[in-house]
Amino acid sequence: MTTDPPISPANNDMFWVFYGVCLPLNVLGLAVNAVFATAFRRYGGRLLSAKIDRVASLLIYICLGWATVCITKYMTKLVEHPVVMYQIEALLGSVTMVSVFSVNWMLALERFHALKGSNAEQSKKFYGYIYTVAATLVAINIVVFGTSPSNDALRPAYPAQAYVWFISMFLGFVVIVASVTYLYATTYKHCSVRLRSASTLAQEAELLRIERRVMFNCIIMGCTLSFAYLPGALDTGVRIFGGKGSVVVEGLGYILVSMDLVVTPLLLAYFMPHVRSAVLGVLYGEKRLRNEFGWTLRSSSSEMSLESGQEAETRPRKFHVLRVIE
Predict the structure, then answer these.
(1) For residue range 273-300, what is the model confidence (pLDDT) as tens digits?
(2) Degrees to nearest 5, angle at CA 14 with 8 and 15
């Protein structure tokens, strides 16, 4: 059986990036996503009543699986292993990446439809586009990695398959990022129109504050994918098409992708207060939260929150439309 030798600082420029930065980030990502997954399981009855919450939980489980794949890949690199291991890990990594992108697309779509008030048929049509793009990319990856080994558990070793893999993945990346950006820009536009039509002169200051927050949230959600994956994608493309590439950009690409496993659940907690509440319930326990902080885990329709009784009474009333943005 053909085997690959273990990597070391002597034969791989990325060794210290892999094991000094990426592996610890992957382990941290595994732990963080495991806590979130536990929250979704424990409070599923209250936490998963809305479709957007179910999509968010799917993203967490995918990140949990990807963290596991990444950790396995880095541990495999340290020992002599069959060549087919890199092939399998490359396929799993690419399919998981497609899944992460697709579910982020679904999240953007759910926020857009929740604000716009679209019916189920309209939503189903847009989901059909997402499933088609995702299924096409997964099928291409299966064919590519089924006919080519991988030297690095990332991309195909044979040039023809590498070209097909990169072009298809990069085009998918562009389509998904463009769609997500458009959806969040349109979400902000609709939100701004609805807020202004519902506001009075006395609410102008509060309205401006809310609009700025909505714009900030939409920018963060729209730019995360590009920021995390573009450097690595560009460096990989340069290398596949015969360029030298950059060790710095390559290392940055690996680090940003590893960071995304930690950042994604934290962003969900930031934008979805009921998810944050459930995670705190898992970490501290409802009894401790109630006794030490005076907080109660509450659910209201599709929304859960941790707040004290006094906060519930004194907290300013928010515009209802913000619930799909926060």
Answers:
(1) 888 888 888 888 776 666 555 555 554 3
(2) 35
